[in-house]
Specification:
The structure holds two protein chains of two kinds. Chain A is an all-alpha fold. Chain A contains 15 helices and two strands. Chain A has two domains: 96 residues, no CATH class; 237 residues, MetI-like (MetI-like fold, Orthogonal Bundle), CATH 1.10.3720. In chain A, 73% of the residues lie in helices and 2% in strands. Chain A is globular. In chain B, 45% of the residues lie in helices and 14% in strands. Chain B is built from 21 helices and 15 strands. In chain B, strand 1, helix 2 and strand 2 form a beta-alpha-beta unit. The N and C termini of chain B lie far apart (92 Å). Classes of the chains: A mainly alpha, B alpha/beta. At the A-B interface, helix 14 of A face helix 3, helix 4, helix 20 and helix 21 of B.
Chain lengths: 361, 477
Amino acid sequence: MTSTAVQTHPPVFTTVAPDDWKTLAPDNWKLAIVVGLGVSVIACIALPAAISFWIVAAMVAMVAGAFSVNAYRRRYYGGLLVSPAIAVLFVMNIFPLLWSLGLSFFAYQSNQQTIRFVGLGNYVKVLTSELAGGDVWHALNNTALFVVLTVVAQMTTGFLLAMLFAKQFPLRRYLLILVLTPMMLSVVAAGVFFSYYYDPTFGLLSYFMRVFSGNQFILMDNKVGAVAGIVFADAWMWSPFVMLLVLAGLVSVPKYLYEAAAIDRVSSWRRFWTITFPYIRGLLMLALLFRTIEAFKMADLVYILTRGGNDTLTISYHLIRIANEQNKTSEGAAISYVMLFIVIVLTNLYLYIANRRSVEN
Amino acid sequence: MKSKTRLERLAAALGVVSLMTLGGAIKASAEDVVLHMAVPDWPPTRIMKDMFDKEYKSTSGNKVTLDLDFIPWPDFYTRVNASLTSGEKKYNMAVSDSQWLGAFIEGGYFRKINDLIDADPDLKKAMGEMHPAVLNAYATYPYTSKNFYGFPQFPDILVSYARKDIFCNDEEQKNFKAKYNKKLPCTGEEFDDVDWQLFENIGAFFMRKKGDMLAGKPADADFYGIAFQVGKGYDFSTTSVHTFVWQAGGNIWDETKVPDGHAVGVVNSDVAVKALDHMLSLIKYMPPLAKTGTMDIFKSDELFRAGKVALNVNWIGLAEASLDPKMSQVADKLVFGQPPATRGADGKLARWSQIGGQPFVLTTWNTDLINKEAIGFVKWWLSKDVQMEYASKGGQSAMKSVYTDPKYDTFRPWNRAWAPGLDWQKDMWHIPQFFEILTQQQDQYDLAITGKQDGKTTLDNVAKFQENLLKEAGLIK
């Protein structure tokens, strides 16, 4: 009885019978793939790139059309509705990823007209060669330093700000808007602002420090100062983001739990660990994940504040120099994939820890 | 009679048709042509655009419009590079730094112009009039060969900018004489004779704290003796290091000696190391920003215009703003001269210096019509009258008939340093690997400027990198 009542969707790609793949029909996606592949390969071989590009694009559109007609005829409306999103994701995200992955196995420079297959040569070069590898490892070390320092600074500041703004006090709303403002600025604007703030001749920081030391203060004339300057600017911009997430967790804690804790005379420390923290832990992990990924990609602030000077070159800024300035596209693609690998490992590590904690609780 | 009338009517009709066709042809031959050009956003290109819009009329009868894409200097290379390598074919012409020539010629983006010059006697004459240092740097690839790719747009050299009100102050003159037993320069001619020793003395002498006396008044802020470019970005420290090395008798890797010339032994020679150490020793007399590795041409210009520095060495291209009271606190207090030089044992000054300025180039995808109109525009631009007018508005010219004209030196206070300076200009590399060499060199110089490594280690690292890279590229045997 139950089994007959359950409606099952027929497989979406089987309108045309397997032996009918040669039938000319608008929903024959198998034929569309065969024709599309054939025409694309011939166009790529026989025609100039400027023409073959559009022919391949037309073939992709034809195959997508065949899938759509097939799905429509099979009444697979769910699939049809999400297909535009999948198409955009493919064009904007998946295709460039695959394309750059392919490029990383070739010797190709964007300002030259030649391309040559080198297998894993670019990976070996960027990780081990004397000419290129040293810079990559050095930049990765610097990046790790920035990730640790900026994330710790942002998480701590953001968390403390959230604890503050979870309470009610006069002008809270206006102060909250003020605290959120840095997050809304462009990184370039913030970078230029801090470059003047730190300037030893014109800068406010030097002006204030002079009151105590009697001399101009040069923050960024050594690595410690330069790193501190960048970390502070980044924390100034992104601590409000962490604060927003944590604040969302804090306001979601039911008040009766605190009331019950008060009746039981629970200490404030215990109240925090047993009531507050479980509500914000997931959001803290999310903030940690987002900020770690972003910190790993840091390039803009470094570019504006030090140009990578004072030994502050990060892997993203190094990548910009390799791929955009020196036009070493394939080498840049290989570095990108090394970065992607590290980010994926980090992300999975976070997710693993987060999931393990959830299971334990 | 009847047939004659028919013939007359037919002839008349043919006449009308012929006239209409001819009229149509004349109308069709006058086309709207737009020249799209990428240019840095600064006075030399703004002046050119203004002059073009007001004065230029194509001799072909076509209506030619110059569409300039003004790009801020810090983004200029990135934007032009991205446009060219993306294949968008947006620009018909571009202002290009001379160092980019090799990379973009080998990539197939910049058009060789020998045929266009040879086909046009006026253009050939104009190019023949160019100062050889400018022509070699801006037009040739390989460097100093007879293959031409660029026309000078804005030639540029380094000059000294100095505060007349301070240098000519009697009290400062007296104190300087007492301390160094030398005359503190005051006139343009005296600044022409400044060597590095005197430059260092000036640097040390004018280091004043807030409240110290400066030209008879207490200084309202800390004041510094000297400034020049030693920044991490683009080619800022490289420009200064090359100048010091060349003047000391050293050299950079010489691209005209491919494949026998080496980097190791040349770039890190004892003379070069000494020259770099000399440059590093002067940083302490500069505004403290220099110690952070971010003292570029814009920062040193800004500090000088804000009245914080006595003597600044910078490109002429940035000088116009220093005379504008809206942008400069020292607009009415300036004197200009040739940049500091190295005095030899015979007392003569070696003034070798890194050349600045830019050529403009044609791109390879231009149609014949676009090239024809572009050449028409270039011919107009490189004509004597136009170059004189450009110079009168603040531009510079490398054409001999222009810069030797007696009026030329009267246009701007720095023009008197122009012609003598041209003879001492050299350029860095034009090879496709130039950006790799440049960025590694800039990284290494930054470590030296911020005090993390000494000059010898710095140049050893630079030489080793260049030797390996250029060997890999087949440019060193």
